[in-house]
Amino acid sequence: MRFRYLIDRTSKVVVLVFALLALVILAAIAAYNLKAALPAFRQAGVLHMLFGTEWSLTNKEFGLLPMILGSLMVTAGALIFAVPLGVACAILLAEVAPTRVRQFLRPAVDLLAGIPSVVFGLVGLVIIVPFIRDFGGPGYSLAAGIIVLTVMILPTIVSISEDSIRAVPKSYREGALALGATQWQTIWRVLLPSARSGIMASVVLGMGRAIGEAMAMIMVLGNSPVIPKSLLSPASTMAGTIAADAPEASGVQRSALFAISVVLFLLIIIINGIALVILRRGSRAQNVC
Amino acid sequence: MPRMSAKSTQKLAMAGIWGAGAIAVLFLLLIIGYVLVRGLSHISWSFLTTAPSGGLAGGGGISTVIVTTFYLVGFAMVILVPLGVGAAIYLAEYAPDNRLTRLIRFGTEVLAGVPSIVFGIFGFALFVIALNFRFSILAGALTLVCLLLPILIRTSEEALRAVPRAHREAALALGATKWQTIWRVTLPAAIPGIATGVILCIGRAVGETASLYVTMGGSPAMPTSLFSGGRTLSLHLFYLATVTNNISGAFATGVILIMVIVGTNAITNWLSQRFRARMMVGA
After folding, report:
1. Residue A289: its pLDDT value, please?
2. Does A108 touch chain B (CB under 8 A)?
């Protein structure tokens, strides 16, 4: 039976090729993006693009600063609300809630994670935009984007933080409680510091999701490429601009969209790299204990 | 200000923690409740079975949209599943601990974090323009495959790793080759876990918008082949809400989307619980 050894050897090669595919796709995305972005970078100059404040496809002005700032502002704003809320929910799920509450809360968080971004965008468009309009401005605003993103990244922060709080060895809790600490003192002084790396990773991953979100941001930000002056003024993000302009752009305009994509891609690689390093260091620290 | 006693801090903190949980649940109920209230009344048999009228009014139903969604997701899964499971088999069963394996793992993890619009514009450049597939279901499906590959690899690898070692050792001891062991023993045992990953991917695919917006074109017509353009449920919702301003149609589409997501989540939970129970018994 030579045949089965032949199959054995061929299959090993085939699955190796499949495993390499992810690497190939990553390399292809990076290479394609860079190549397609070159004409725009060459025409406008890298620095001029990164720090230019004017974006207009028709006038071939490719300043990316408004949308870079827009992305960073909505992301930072969403993190300010989502991190305390998400970590508190994670503590509730991991430490405080009785099983019955947990059995209801955990699927709720999972469901929130699964709701498509356009549904968030739609609810934001119909409820939050008119609500913000009452405070002045067009309603399509930085504030609306921040509120929508807060809800969208909440599940990411909750589920990863919960896992990391759960992973803290039981003896830590028992030690603190035996010393007479209250439950909150145990959580605040012992559990959260021990779970720090996982919680930080959850924040960084939430940040990645926020920066990459396109459709919901198109729907509530107003997609205007100006640097927002206040929470009530419209804005745009990098991801949103790529999506909104891609179907119509051609030539050097299309190249400018690839340039945004390159900036976004680099930013995400840096952010995820940080998350990976934090997580890896965390798991090493816990193995020592 | 006097320092608070440990007891009152404890009470305050617990109130805050329960409050945060309540807010999260409130968000969920608010979103789902609002979509249901605004959308349910608009759903009828004729809404599900007539084609969208297109044009600026954005009226009509969602029949072609449902067909396109099935077509796209089905085709994407046909390509994705062998690739993803194959890669997972390599990583779980063969991969030696060397530099190449670490590189593959790193690449997969990075790919999982890339925003969908970056996949989208890549698919647009490669499939729509360079390979001349035009705005089509084919271009959308291939883009989806790139987007979902890291997710399926990760979940399938976990499922394969959960199969107890004794299964493999028994098969090898009976004289099976490594591949026979994988194909006849490990893989069948891991099927429920892999199915969980596939359903997770289906959920993601149905909810995906950004990358499909730039690769599928958004025609409301019934697709006739893989080269037809089209719109999925999520895309249809986006067009109704932003381009044609048919908000009640958008909410009705949202109801269908949420039902799909609730369904896939329920199946995933059920499968993964069964899988975990079975692996515990086997160990």
Report:
1. 46
2. yes
What is the ipTM score, two decimals? 0.89
Return the domain boundaries, chain B.
59-282
> Which regions of chain A does DSSP assign to beta strands (E)?
55-56, 61-62
Q: Which CATH class is domain A65-249?
A: mainly alpha
pLDDT, tens digit (0-9, with 9 covering 90-100), for B45-73:
888 888 887 666 677 888 888 999 999 99
Do residue A89 and residue B107 have CB atoms under 8 angstroms apart?
no
- Is A91 in the B-facing interface, judged by CB distances under 8 Å? yes
Query: Domain segments of chain A: what residues?
Result: 65-249
Touching check for A3 and chain B: CB below 8 Å?
no
Are A86 and A192 within 8 A, CB to CB?
A: no
- The answer to pTM > 0.95 is no
Q: Tell which CATH architecture fits domain B59-282.
A: Orthogonal Bundle (1.10)
Rounded CA-CA distance A87/A79 in Å is 11
> Min CA distance, B75 vs chain A (Å)?
18
Determine whether the interchain pair A33/B264 forms a contact, defined as Cβ–Cβ distance below 8 Å.
no
What is the SS3 assignment for A97? coil
Range in A278-282, B14-18, B48-52, B107-111 with the lowest mean pLDDT: A278-282
> What distance lies between CA A102 and its chain's CA centroid?
25
Asked if B13 and A188 count as a contact pair (C-beta separation under 8 A), the reply is yes
Q: What is the distance in angstroms between the Cα of B184 and the nearest Cα belonging to chain A? A: 13
For A183-230, write each residue's pLDDT tens digit. Answer: 999 999 999 999 988 898 899 889 989 999 999 999 999 888 888 888
Q: Tokens 């449902």 belong to which residue?
A: B66
Q: Is the pLDDT of residue B283 over 50?
A: no
